[in-house]
Description:
The chain has 520 residues and is α/β, with parallel strands linked by helices. It has helices spanning 14-24, 31-62, 64-67, 71-74, 87-92, 99-113, 132-142, 150-154, 157-173, 175-178, 184-194, 210-222, 245-256, 316-325, 349-358, 416-431, 450-455, 463-466, 478-509; strands at residues 3-5, 11-13, 198-203, 235-242, 263-266, 280-285, 327-338, 362-367, 380-386, 394-399, 405-406, 412-413, 445-449. The protein starts with a strand and ends in an 11-residue tail after the last helix.
Amino acid sequence: MATKPTDSGATTGHEAELWAMADALRGSMDAAEYKHVVLGLIFLKYISDAFEEHHAAVLAEWGEEAAEDGDEYIAENIFWVPPEARWPHLKARARQATIGQTVDRAMAAIERDNPALKEVLAKDYARPALDKQRLGQLIDMIGNIRVGDAEARSRDVLGRVYEYFLSQFASAEGKRGGEFYTPRCVVKLLVEMLEPYRGRVYDPCCGSSGMFVQSIEFIRAHASGNGNGGRARGDISIYGQESNYTTWRLAKMNLAIRGIGGQIAHGDSFHNDRHPDLKADFILANPPFNVSDWGGERLAEDKRWRHGVPPKGNANFAWVQHMVHHLAPRGIAGFVLANGSMSSNQSGEGKIRKNMIEAELVDCMVALPGQLFYSTQIPACLWFLARARQRQGEILFIDARKLGRMVDRTHRELTDEDIARIADTYHAWRTEEEGDGYADVPGFCKSASLDEVRKHSHVLTPGRYVGVEPQEDDGEPFEDKMTRLVAALREQQAEGARLEAAIAENLEALGFGLRRSATG
């Protein structure tokens, strides 16, 4: 199953074909419900493929008894799949009316024998609302692809398919679907800017675990010392929390298919912080924008609000201060927020932002282009906060609104070149003295002093600081240009007068002549 990656890692080809077939089998089922049907089966196919391949090898070398010993698989980081959950067993029964119960039993058996998957897999395939004929067709379709054998794992076929399906469901569901999916290019930009080589990585609203998956991919891509002197060794610990139960299940599956371990808790990070003592070296997050019903009235005296009590009607600065609270002494955080967070003065938000700036926490602000997200049309930005900042008294502003390319009529993505340009600018600014690696670029980036930010009333919108991109001189002499422009203006005025006279004549013919003014 070949894949054809785009610059930002999105894929086309068989993933798209598989999605088209799966979507055709959805019928009238809501995308939010169908998502778990499809992704659960794809996950089951993956672990069955990996199991069957290793089973064949053990069987050939050691015999039947060893091949049915679960320890043989655990040692190789492969899930043990009991006989009733293996894909051939399901496929042989795909056309039976009881296929729903067969799949449910398979899921329950896998959870029973693999504690890491407890309460993660969907077990409601037998429900009457799920068309069993379509379910059987879906099993047949998924059975035609190899997603879990060694070759497929080496090319991360399942990771590609899984991520592609998540993005397509996000698009199909609109706002609700996008709540658990952050576009790959945005995740990649955050990861490339933060460079989480080692340490504790935390996401308090981890959705489907995209931040963690991309962090691991970043480590693997740089593990050979590609431009980093061999610093990337993959020595990271993952901590996350997700309040939506079904999304938490997606997150656990997303990590499991890649063999990534992590402490991913289910619960509300504001009211039931499952990692209360964690101090993270890196925090990456995409909190839901402008949430009004976050229960802030019950947390007015919370110890996390060191820079001001966040408004009860908007959780943006509750998320920000929650992340600051969990930062290690030399930690750094990068996260997505709505653009309003950069300038709002409502309900004390401006005071919180000012206090954070004056506390030397704000390191960098990035204005993103529009149409990147499936979940919202609200313009978004990236915040970067850091303790023990290297550039005290300055904040880097990057205006990336003109970057990216349209991938369809409604969605834009940042290319690898765009991501590299933004990340390289940030790294140069953080590590080099001005003039020796970093330089302001009008219209794109500016290192602004704290005094300059104060003059702008602590507003953090990059457009206020970076200025205007210089216009190229077209070489046309000023006198010639003005003569040409004036001539064009006169032509347009004459055409306007002609059209106005024609309209008046038509109205006159219809008996609605324009009355002349008293001076006319």
